[in-house]
Write a structure and sequence with these properties.
The protein is α+β, with helices and mostly antiparallel strands and 480 residues long. Helix content is 48%, strand content 20%. The strands form 3 sheets. Strands 2-1-6-5-4-3 form a 6-stranded antiparallel beta sheet. A 5-stranded mixed beta sheet has the order 8-10-11-13-12. Strands 7-9 form a two-stranded antiparallel sheet.
């Protein structure tokens, strides 16, 4: 049961069926209520008409035994005086309820035989006299009556009549509720039969429509399971030819697979390139140590130290890239770029070219160590390619703090200006590893810039070389 209702299709079918069922019950109740009220109103109208017809005869002074009463099976009638005695009633009336009294005929005092067969004198009880009044309002009650042995339910209207000679009288006349009972019963039976059939149709249609709508989801699920089992990230899930949420899900899934494939391939290349880069200094260092162990007089201590330094720097670069890929957040330290550049330059030794400074005061927020790595990598790159001069500039530019490092070398070809920021990329293939490094410096610099909410790009310098421009958000502009 839990597995069944764990299906979206089953839940959608159940939900749709419940909604339709509630709507049908509410609509059915409203229809039955309206039908019953309408038919009851019609019965009230018939009862009121019959009661007022008899009341009009009483107002006209017609004697009780001469009243023209409707057939009892159509509309049972009672006329009750102010003492609660029945003075006239319909023929064949055997039982009545819901009126002022359950008597089905007039008492002895109102029968014609009680006057000795003589015509009553004017002014006596039962004699026509002066016209009276009929109350405009009627009261309605539910009741029943038995006529000729058949019982039925009625709606009784009670109409008050005031006469000057007979006093106050009340006329009770019934309107049959047989039609109302029959119509309501028929409607209820139809609903009890039709509603389940309609619910079954709704459930079936919902099941089929949901199954068809979710068919692409099943295909996506199957393909994702196959991708997981095969670990083949080059595969893609099928995209339906629609413009609905499922199509967007498939497209997003494929975009995620593409990004994941790119990330995995990048990681594999990174591991392969790192292994390749580590192999050379490790092999060189091992060779020197083995030679030194066999022939101490031939040990190249300076070369071993250089290889060890290269290994240390490469390990540091790889560790920093790993931290950046893991999403390490930069710090919140305030760094004043002009003072920062002067301090970093004062600690550098062995640079082959002079560095010209054009420093404007501007602050940035971030990790001082990571920003120092960016500046160091940019300066190393500029010193490596410059002919005679390297220039460092800092300035504020709107909401940005700008740091530029340029050289007067050969520059970077336009089509290579993005490629140089890839990991382990060196444009000068003829350059030795000792001269060119491992090709991680610019990649690290761009990753650090991105982590600080900035950018790093390269353009042509005025002197013809490369101009690297680092842009970082300025907290001074944000405060203003």
């Amino acid at each position: 049961m839990r597995r069944l209702f764990g299906s979206v299709r089953a839940r959608a079918t159940l939900g749709a069926s419940l909604v339709v069922a509630l709507a049908l019950v509410a609509a059915g109740a409203a229809v039955l209520f309206s039908l019953r009220a309408n038919l009851t109103g019609q019965a009230d109208g018939r009862a009121d008409a019959a009661a007022r017809e008899v009341a009009a005869q009483l107002v006209a002074g017609r004697p009780y035994d001469d009243l023209d009463l409707p057939d009892a099976d159509e509309s049972p009638v009672q006329v009750v005086d102010e003492d609660g005695e029945v003075v006239a009633a319909g023929e064949d009336l055997e039982r009545i309820s819901g009126t002022g009294t359950d008597a089905v005929g007039p008492g002895p005092a109102t029968r014609p035989a009680d006057s000795g067969g003589k015509k009553p004198e004017p002014g006596e009880r039962g004699e026509p006299g002066e016209p009276g009044e009929i109350d405009d309002d009627a009261e309605y009650t539910d009741g029943s009556a038995t006529v000729d042995g058949e019982s039925a339910d009625y709606r009784f209207a009670a109409v008050e009549v005031s006469t000057p000679t007979r006093g106050d009288l009340t006329v009770y006349a019934g309107g049959s509720l047989t039609d109302e009972r029959s119509a309501v019963s028929t409607a209820l039976t139809s609903m009890l039969i039709g509603f389940p059939l309609l619910l079954a149709v709704v459930a079936g249609v919902t099941w089929l429509v949901t199954r068809r709508a979710l068919r692409p989801v099943a295909a996506i699920t199957a393909e994702m399971a196959a991708i997981t089992a095969s670990e083949d990230l080059a595969r893609r899930v099928p995209e339906p030819d629609t413009h609905d949420e499922i199509a967007r899900l498939a497209r997003t899934t494929n975009e995620t697979l593409t990004a994941l494939q790119t990330s995995v391939e990048r990681q594999r290349r990174f591991v392969a390139d790192a292994s390749h880069e580590l192999r050379s200094p490790i092999a060189s260092l091992r060779t020197q140590l083995e030679v030194g162990a066999a022939h101490p007089e031939l040990l190249d201590v300076d070369g071993a130290v250089e290889d060890t330094v290269r290994l240390q720097e490469l390990a540091a670069d790889l560790l920093l890239l790993a931290r950046l890929d893991a999403g390490e957040r930069p710090g919140e330290a305030r760094v004043e770029l002009a003072a920062f550049v002067r301090e970093e330059l004062s600690q550098r030794t062995g640079d082959p070219h002079d560095v010209e400074l054009d420093l404007g005061s501007v602050e940035v927020t971030g990790s001082r160590n990571q920003l120092a790595r960016v500046l160091g990598n940019l300066l190393d790159n500029a010193q490596r390619h410059a002919r005679s001069r390297v220039t460092v500039t800092t300035r504020a530019e709107g909401a940005w703090a700008v740091l530029q490092v340029s050289d007067d070398g050969s520059g970077v070809p336009p089509k290579e200006r993005e490629r140089i920021f890839e990991r382990f990329v060196r444009l000068d293939d003829a350059r030795t590893r000792d001269e060119g490094g491992a090709g991680l410096g610019l990649a690290i610099a761009r990753d650090v810039a991105a982590r600080h909410g900035g950018t790093l790009g390269v353009e042509r310098a005025p002197s013809g070389g490369a101009l690297f421009e680092l842009r970082l958000p300025s907290p001074q502009a944000s405060a203003d």
